């Protein structure tokens, strides 16, 4: 408790006297005003100096350095562009001169192939930089004669170049790649001065190593020189190819370009780190000047303070000593003269009176601040807008990005109705009038779906019932139909007794914030009311047709499909037969009891039957889908389980090869070899949190063309809509295998081999799992590794990595480990066990 009191009387009831300091007569100085003034002035000067030198160091000098680097880069790029132009021009003139020799003219006049070949061989000796030189006669119609084929020209580029040159068109040199080697061809029209219409096209081809050697003429340490050739892709996009390069570049922000005349080429020069450092002036001289200025200012003000103090002290001493005399007094400080006069008058008056006048100090009221500190006297009252949560309310079913719980005891029809009213209300506030509703094949799903539809209509929303479908079909419907929102009644990969809701509003899968908003609406009972309508729509044929038009399987494949009695049971076989594959169905009948195995594809024990079927049928590969079809697991023809991060490597290699620079998003449970593979193929790896909603948000944020989770969710932004779809991902895998002509075993054997574990589930209480991970993160010390707490605790070591995090969907912690050897893997496990035992000793670790 804070109390401000004003005390006017002493304990005896009389007026209290002010405190004085002995002989000071109540006169004192709480500080030195001179020092304060000087310090203030020094601070102002220091501020000016800091601002001025900050401008020099952070703005002016970097700007000058940047301009200097750009001018140097422009100069290097222009110089190499001039060199390349000179080389091309000189080569053309030499070609014309060679073609005008009597021997060449005789061969052109006769148009004998044997004579032309002899001339070509003879001329080639005078062009050591060329790998080939062709002389092609021009026909009577003015175009190159290609009787009996293309006269051995390498490709359509050379054919087109020769044809255009023979028509009198000035052609530019063009580069192309053959068997991994870049070549450049030039065409030049030569005429016989004596015989009309006896012309020829001379075609010279050189390896781009010659261009590299020319680029290396300058000091390679200055940076990277790259020759880029512009072209237009089949889709109409302007693109470039690097046809020659040398040297090592540094910061690409300083890359400068220079066009090479009479070509479609551009020189790109990126300065090296050494050149950047050489052209970047040191800030030390400026810092030294700043320090000297600061020291000089401090010294000057200190001198002023010391000198002024002595002057004032001397003047005051003179004033006091001369106060009782009428002698002349000269002071160095004019401002003290009035005080000196007043002091002298008072002193002389007192002497004349014969006694000292005692100053009476008036009694004054004093104020004191009484601070009464008590335990609990200062309280912070936090008023929460969130409604009260009843003890029997299953708040834990509102998870990170969906609603999921036991359909018998937690997610019952009464609660589903309230959730439906809440979602309908929120959708209406977002101007989403219509919602799609679908469900999986669980025993509880039809009843929950019916209650949900009724609640949505009571909230005023219209409903499009798409029936029993996999979750990706509902996602597809939000793009295919004029309805951007929907709800999927599904327990996904959870046990058969569970069920839940996956919610899409305005084509966005809602995550934690949206789920909390629904929960709070349910608790508050704040719902809209209306009377919506319901229609039914079958979107499965459109879904199958869309994928069939997008995915092309070049070679028919034999595939075993394990639907696990889930929602993909009917649609998956139909889809892959439409793609031209031979389908071996396994458990492809909907049964909400999941009699053959649990619908969780991330548990490798559930893939045993699929492995046996693939081997027995001698299939190309096998695919298993989880209960609602947004996950997949893959088995090779030899029965090997392809971990999802390895599968993502296959997809990344395919997507990034067509889209250099593309982002690929993956979760913290994936192998770090995936990062290396994406980088090697020119992509950008993006590590992110586990969870399909989080992944989709990150893909939308980065514009990524591919994403994947270790649990089996695969997201294609290239050619698809960016949502997780196990069936579409399996189709893309079939397309890759059919195109490459390799087996899946052969494809994955090319990737680096590691020793790793599957996803390990550590059972814990669902309500306390996040608190356990927080304790582990706060208390664990991994001094030998790089710690990442983006999602749980991931630690990367020199020979591998380990992870422990809270599952978003089950009552468990999840762990995973990867290393270069069994020994290293066991060491990483041991370190995690030791650290976790310190912070969570009661946790029963099963790894």
Automatic annotation (TrEMBL):
What the entry lists under InterPro entries is as follows: A-D-PHexomutase_a/b/a-I, A-D-PHexomutase_a/b/a-I/II/III, A-D-PHexomutase_a/b/a-II, A-D-PHexomutase_a/b/a-III, A-D-PHexomutase_C, A-D-PHexomutase_C_sf, A-D-PHexomutase_CS, Alpha-D-phosphohexomutase_SF
Please give the catalytic activity noted in the UniProt record.
alpha-D-mannose 1-phosphate = D-mannose 6-phosphate
Any one biological process term the GO annotation gives: carbohydrate metabolic process
| EC nos | 5.4.2.8
Metabolic or biological pathway: Nucleotide-sugar biosynthesis; GDP-alpha-D-mannose biosynthesis; alpha-D-mannose 1-phosphate from D-fructose 6-phosphate: step 2/2
Report the family membership: Belongs to the phosphohexose mutase family.
Question: Is the keyword Ribosomal protein assigned to this protein?
Answer: no
EC category name: isomerase
**Signal sequence extent:** none
Question: Which keywords are on file for this protein?
Answer: Isomerase, Magnesium, Membrane, Metal-binding, Phosphoprotein, Transmembrane, Transmembrane helix
**Transmembrane: is it a keyword of this entry?**
yes
What cofactor does this one take? Mg(2+)
Q: Which residues form the Alpha-D-phosphohexomutase C-terminal domain?
A: 762-834
UniProt domain Alpha-D-phosphohexomutase alpha/beta/alpha: residue ranges: 397-524, 542-639, 644-751
Transmembrane residues, as ranges?
33-58, 287-306
Protein name, per record? phosphomannomutase
